[in-house]
Predict the structure.
Amino acid sequence: MNKAAIIMCGGRGSRLWPLSTDNKPKQFLKIINNHTLLQNTIDRIPKDYLKVFVSNINFKADLDKYIKNDDIVIYEPVSRNTGQAIYIACLYLKNKFKKNFKIIALPCDHLFDDDKFCTLLNRGMELLKKQKNIITFGIKPTYPETGFGYILKDKNNKILKFIEKPSLEKANSLIEQGCLWNCGVFLFKLNNIIDLYEIYNQKNNNYCNDSLYKGEIQNNCIILGRDYYNTENISFDYLIMEKIDNGLILEYNSLWSDIGDWKRLRDNFITNNENKTIGNNIENINTEGSLIYSDKGKVVTIGIKDLVVVKYGDNLLIIHKDSSDDFKRYIQK
């Protein structure tokens, strides 16, 4: 194998409470179809890619169920965002295999049209054969979302600027300029990215090296040592992408959702004010544009519109589709 996929699956998905919890986050749940979000991501990756999973040690029992013979899994003692997660995976690959992999790093909880995703992936890998660019996928916006980051590009798909979570007015302006949503999918060559980390991650590199050296390694399973606690909590975008001048973006224009909160999950399912029910024994009367989830028992909705109703175990959430920011603040509190 000369291609690898770094699958980042250490998030907690707190904005999908009460379904997603610290003990069982969304990547291990069947939300979209009969497979978990993580299994959908695994199935999306072509068979000739070496798979490297980076997750939190608290999820070991769940993640171990997905690991095959050739897979590599790295368990963090503490979450440190995508910046350190990608580096620690690349560092391990470089030390173990001594060859220049072509790599895709991607989240484990997004929804794509898998065929179109793989077509774009193949195009990106072809570009990597000739260039040292870092390539990212950009999603063609379908509405002025204020909760996403945007990427401004030129006519040759060179990245000009990253814009974080704009106002509604600014989001409309960015779409008019041809900006794309940033979805957190990156392609690069191993040796090239290691060189960039040597430049931009100097204060963390020794801690990462020591956490590998002092960690517990059994076959292809690595539990990082406590030096990892000393690393900076920072995203790959901030650490690398926003500092380089050779970033490229490839436009993805098809089915996509990051399934980040209940509004986005609702919007993915609902068109023309229809309702979406997940579970059994749900009855909707004079109800419009609502997502209703129930794990057991009977749920009846009467005369509601644009709500998300989630009954799971002993917990119940009722939220308007446009109240995601208020819910996010509640979860953080």
